[in-house]
Design brief:
The chain contains 5 helices and 2 strands; from the N terminus they run αααααββ. The chain is mainly alpha-helical. Strands 1-2 form a two-stranded antiparallel sheet. The protein is elongated and about 45 Å long. The relative contact order is 0.12.
């Protein structure tokens, strides 16, 4: 029952453009972070190991994977190089999707 109420409340809040924009930005970062975490684990690297390869700290990797860190294109490029993957973005008029 709570889930349905939460969805209804979220739907109402998403009607406000400012909230919808902020929500989409957070959603994008969370989805990107989850994808990076899965690829890191597949590569059998710890957060500390990936951080060392990137010249950063484990806490930065943790924030990235939790969607709490903005990423530069340069950092994304380095992550994809180290994890041997590609990043594909699809852009349309409404939003950027991963």
């Amino acid at each position: 029952m709570k889930t349905r109420s939460s969805k209804i409340l979220l739907g109402k809040k998403l009607e406000k453009k400012s909230f919808a924009t902020a929500y989409q930005e957070v959603e994008f970062l969370v989805r990107l972070g989850v994808a990076i975490a899965k690829l890191r684990e597949k590569a059998k690297l710890s957060q500390s190991q990936l951080a060392k390869l990137l010249g950063t700290t484990q806490s930065v990797i943790s924030r990235i994977e939790n969607g709490n860190q903005n990423l530069s294109l340069g950092m994304l490029k380095e992550i994809t190089r180290i994890l041997k993957c590609t990043l594909s973005l699809k852009m349309n008029e409404e939003r950027v999707t991963l």
